[in-house]
Amino acid sequence: MIEQYGWSNALRVAFEPHARAGYVPGRIIVQQREANLVVTDAGNLRARLSGRLRHEAQEGGHPAAGDWVALSATTGEGTATVHAVLPRRTAFVRRAADSVQTLQVIAANVDVVFVVTSMNADLNPRRLERFLAAAWQSGARPVVVLTKADLCEQPESQAADIARLAAGCPVLMVSARQGLGLGGLMDHISPGETCVLIGSSGVGKSTLVNALLGEERMATQEIRATDARGRHTTSYRQLVLLPGGGLILDTPGIREVGLIDVDEGLSTVFDDVERLALNCRFSDCGHSTEPGCAVRGALDGGLLDPDRWAHFQKLSREVEAAELAKEGAAQEVGRRRLAAKQRAYRSTKKDLRNLSS
Ligand code: GDP
Ligand code: ZN
After folding, report:
1. Residue 121 class from Cβ within 10 Å (0-12 exposed, 13-18 middle, 19+ buried)?
2. CB of 177 sitting under 6 A from ligand 1
3. Within its chain, how far is the Cα of 120 from the centroid?
């Protein structure tokens, strides 16, 4: 059953220590502060975070929809406790609304990101780039979807322009109105894989979600569950099985995720790579020809995907450049403040002189 939700051999291996501890695996299909809804081989369970995880969540953020977790055996009433979160393959991250320090994962273990934009006059290449950057940063595979092809005079030439901009990722054209190109989307999702749709409001994401779900409205994917206190709670599914295999994740905030800073959360997403680099013999290893380089070793041994490594390097350079720019701006502010203080000091001195004379 959890195979449908993407449970794999790699996850089974990662889960072994938890299995030995007597825990069972599950995937969060609705994330809520109080209790997550988790799908397991024994059906859906309400699961609260263990005390330790709740404590950690204050800094590292809460587990999110799409996360694989280790649960203690159910207490018989459909409730369980989350004891651990398995390492994420991919993640969309944003700053928590209530804190500048806390990063919140808003969707985990996504395989395919449909970056949706419409082919009518609203098409904005810069905005598309930001959504694409967010998609790349998540670690998932981006696929550009151009909607409303029926409203476009020359869809092919526009698609070709976009393809140049979206270097390397597939570009699909669809018209929900004419029912064209929808099958092409499904071809990009294998059974057990999870997709999300991101893009500006009004480009046709809900329409596509409904089409993928076979006209079942996302909004009616309502579930009633009983929480630990016996109350009935209602929420909307965030991780849903698609009729054609695969899953769609539609969690609050995910759709327009690309509009926030794309330099956030690099360490969260590339945690494994950063940890690997800690094992290099030299602490200032450049990961090229140095002896004892753990990154090279992992690349040669097939343990680190070269594309993922290249992408990590590219994004690290971007983040570095952005940080230098920020520092430069901060120094500039400092200089201006100092100059203003000196001006104030000089004029005060002048005032004092005027007073005393
Ligand atoms: P969202 O905000 O991205 O979820 O966009 P919606 O799915 O709500 O769509 C916004 C508007 O675009 C709605 O009025 C849809 O009917 C319309 N729309 C969606 N897909 C198409 C399409 O393929 N062709 C045309 N002409 N209109 C579409
Ligand atoms: Zn190294």
Report:
1. exposed
2. yes
3. 27
| Residue 227 confidence (pLDDT) above 50 | no
Residue 251 contacts residue 62 (beta carbons within 8 Å):
no
User: Is the pLDDT score of 159 beyond 60?
Assistant: yes
Q: State how far Cα 351 lies from the chain centre.
A: 58
Determine the average pLDDT of the residues in 234-243. 81
Residues linked to residue 93 through DSSP beta bridges, in sequence order:
105
Going by the DSSP 8-state scheme, the letter that residue 120 receives in this structure is S
202 lines ligand 1 (CB under 6 A): yes
Alpha-carbon Rg of the chain, whole angstroms?
25
Q: Which residue puts its alpha carbon closest to atom 28 of ligand 1?
A: 148
Task: Tell how strand 43-49 and strand 36-40 pair up.
Answer: antiparallel
Task: Say yes or no: CB of residue 44 within 6 Å of ligand 1.
Answer: no
- Please give the pLDDT value at position 248: 95
Residue with CA closest to ligand 1 atom 10: 202
Consecutive H or E run containing 163: helix 155-165
Q: What is the pTM of this model?
A: 0.72
Angle of CA points 130, 136, 138, to nearest 5°: 105
Q: Is 255 in the pocket of ligand 1 (CB under 6 A)?
A: no
175 lines ligand 1 (CB under 6 A): yes
DSSP 177: T
Q: Of the ligands numbered here, which is closest to the C-alpha atom of 115?
A: 1
Rounded Cα distance between 172 and 352, Å, is: 73
Q: How far is the CA of 284 from the centre of ligand 2 (A)?
A: 8
Q: Categorise residue 177: left if φ over 0, alpha if ψ from -120 to 50, beta otherwise.
A: alpha
Helix locations, 293-305, DSSP H = 294-300
Domains of the chain: 2-85 (2.40.50.140), 91-250 (3.40.50.300)
Distance (angstroms) between ligand 1 centre and the Cα of 182 equals 14
Tell me how far apart the alpha carbons of residues 132 and 306 are, in angstroms, rounded to a whole number.
Answer: 20
Q: What is the DSSP string of 64-97?
A: -TT-EEEEPPP-SSSEEEEEEEPPPS-EEEEE-T
Q: Which of 207, 248, 250 to mutate to test the pocket of ligand 1 (most atoms within 8 A of CB)?
A: 207
